[in-house]
Design brief:
The chain has about 220 residues and is an alpha+beta fold. The chain folds into 3 domains: about 50 residues, Winged helix-like DNA-binding domain superfamily/Winged helix DNA-binding domain (Arc Repressor Mutant, subunit A, Orthogonal Bundle), CATH 1.10.10.10; about 45 residues, no CATH class; about 80 residues, SH3 type barrels, CATH 2.30.30. It is built from 7 helices and 7 strands, in the order αααββααααβββββ. The strands form 2 sheets. Strands 6-5-4-3-7 form a 5-stranded antiparallel sheet, with helices on one face. Strands 1-2 form a two-stranded antiparallel sheet. α4 packs antiparallel against α5 and α4 crosses α6. The two termini are about 20 Å apart.
Length: about 220
């Protein structure tokens, strides 16, 4: 966030609101960043704040043991989430660069967090869905809804959605000529075609539920 704000800087109060912590915590963490070698500058008075020197790079990632375990728990508890394998690999990269003492404490704490996640759906199916979404290619699926009628459809993926413990592929169904929600666990087969998607957007899906948000959001 310091980098995004550039030369304008950012007040401690705004940082506190953004991350949901106290101003005291923000100032403590900024001091820790400075002490670790990050070129953080501060400007007192009205309109002042904190910033990162132009062109500066941040020091290697530094997580607390609890933060490291939070990442491990989140990934382990959601094996069906889109790109879950990539998330697990990313978390492992982060763990690999932790200092030995923090890593040891994180490993000890991780032993106190148990996850009993449901078996994940077919890896090949999820890989096809993930690739089609990322590359915006038409997806051919064999789908069996609750009524047991199996159909093969070409779908233009628009978004992934999670609600009530279920993951859905939401896209433009070329068979029905409409936006449809497909329960991922009911997709029996999936393959990525060479056909590019049209111009269907997230807006066509409609308004999300009040408590729904994109994964990059902080707060509702």
């Amino acid at each position: 966030m310091l980098r995004r704000n550039g030369t304008r800087g950012c007040s401690a109060e705004r940082l506190a609101r953004e991350f949901g912590v106290s101003v005291r915590t923000v100032k403590r963490d900024l001091a820790a960043l400075g002490n670790s070698g990050a070129p953080v500058w501060s400007r007192p008075g009205p309109g002042g704040g904190y910033g990162l020197a132009v062109g500066a790079s941040l020091p290697p990632v530094a997580l607390s043991p609890a933060q490291a375990v939070a990442l491990m728990a989140a990934v382990s508890a959601a094996p069906d989430a889109p790109y879950a394998d990539l998330a697990a690999a990313g978390v492992q990269k982060i763990l690999d660069v932790l200092d030995p003492r923090t890593r040891a404490r994180a490993d000890e704490l991780a032993g106190r967090v148990w996850v009993n996640a449901d078996p994940s759906s077919s890896r090949s199916i999820r890989s096809a869905l993930e690739e089609a979404m990322a590359e915006q290619r038409v997806l051919r699926i064999r789908y069996t809804p609750r009524d047991g009628t199996t159909t093969t459809r070409d779908v233009e993926p628009v978004l992934f959605a999670s609600t009530n413990g279920q993951w859905y592929l939401v896209g433009w169904c070329r068979l029905r000529n409409a936006i449809r929600w497909f329960t991922v666990s009911r997709i029996d087969r999936a393959s990525v075609t060479g056909t590019a998607c049209g111009d269907h957007t997230v807006l066509e899906v409609g308004e999300p539920p009040v408590n729904a948000r994109p994964v990059h959001g902080r707060g509702a």
